[in-house]
Amino acid sequence: MSIYGKYADYLPQILDSVLQQIQGIGQEYSAEHGQKLYKHLEGRVKGEESMAQKCERKGLPLTTESALIENRDAIGLRIVCNFIDDIYTCIDLLKKQDNFKIINEKDYITDAKPNGYRSYHLIMEVVTPFEDVHGNKPGTYYVEIQLRTIAMDTWASLEHEMKYKHNIKNPERISKELKRVADELASCDVSMQTIRQLIKEGEL
Asked: Does the model's pTM come out above 0.70?
């Protein structure tokens, strides 16, 4: 039996709907400003086994309530932007959507994690036409969104690949090097943002 219960079939539909809505936001922004709001957009429904493992790690019962209420990342999206400012613009536009409600946000761009990880995390409550765990219809579901620049996304992907899929003999040195690279990439992001701003000022 699926840990998502009878709601399992709704999750991909909700994911597709949210993706389409964000694509629409991006198209409107591009039409108005003549540039892309984001470079890449992708989403996924967390696999049942992965969700069950997360519940076990957190000491939660293997129930649909745990999967969809206690854990809030059954539906996940990643938005990859060209520039840091685009991330915050994207967040502002998400907050203006009538059926989206931001209930939690963590800014790991301004305040990076100790290992160098940078990203902006949102937990978003989405109104849907489907029944939810509480029996409400229309119902609400949680969506986790990660927003990153290309540099942040590249670092996070490579860091995960290297640290979690291999037996590392010298983890302290690797961690130190990864942190150094993360800081260098963050500096590049700021420099690119500055150059972009100088170009814009020159167009005035």
From this structure: yes
